[in-house]
Amino acid sequence: MAHLSNRTGVDEKGQMAVRSMDVYLPKRGLPEGALCKGCGIMYHNKRWQMETIPGKSSCEVLCPACQRMADHNPAGVVTLSGPYLAAHRDEILNTIKQQEAKSREKNPIGRIMEITEEDGTITVTTTEDKLAQKLGREVYKSQKGELHYQWSHEQRIVRVEWMR
In terms of Cα–Cα distance, which of 44, 41, 45 is closest to 64? Predict the structure, then answer.
C-alpha cells in the first residue's frame, strides 16, 4: 500500500510540520540583529538569544515574550494547590524559579510572567506553553502529588494543575 503524503502538517515522520499559528511570532523573519527594546535580547540566526552582538542591532522590536507580557496574554497557566503546598511553599517556588532560569538559557522567550497567591493557591503564568509544562513536571518530580494538563489548541494555551 502506498503512503500518501499529506501536507496539512500532521506530526508524522516524513511530513511537514504545520506552521505555527502563534500570533506573537512574525509571519516573516525579523531582520538579523533585531534587538528587543523590552528585555534586551537579540534576534540572531533566526532565534532569540541572550547574548547581544555590539554594533549589530539593526532595529528595535518587542520580542514575543515582551509582547505577551504587555498584552497580559499567557501561553501557559500553572496552578498549584492543596494542603501540602502551604508547608512547602518556599521550596516549590524555588524549584519553579530555578527551572525558569535553566530554561531561559536555551530559550530566552520562555519566561514567567507573574506569580500570584490567593486562598492557598499559587498561580504562575508563562509566555510559552512548553515552559508551563516543564514547571508542572519539575514540581511533580520533586514533590509528587497529582499533575494534570489541559491544552486549548485553538488559543494555544496550556493549563497545568498540580495538587497535593
Answer: 41
Contacts of 152 (CB under 8 A, 6+ apart): 158, 159
pTM above 0.70, yes or no: yes
Q: Is residue 136 within 8 Å of residue 147, measured between CB atoms?
A: yes
Residue 152 CA to residue 26 CA, distance in Å, equals 21
The edge-to-edge listing of strands for the beta sheet with 42-44 is 47-49, 42-44, 35-36, 60-61
**Kind of pairing, strands 35-36 and 60-61?**
parallel
Set of cell numbers at residue 129: 506553553
Distances (CA, A) of 153 to 4, 19, 20, 27, 158: 26, 13, 11, 19, 8
Structure confidence by residue, pLDDT tens digits, 129-163: 999 999 999 999 999 999 999 998 777 799 999 99
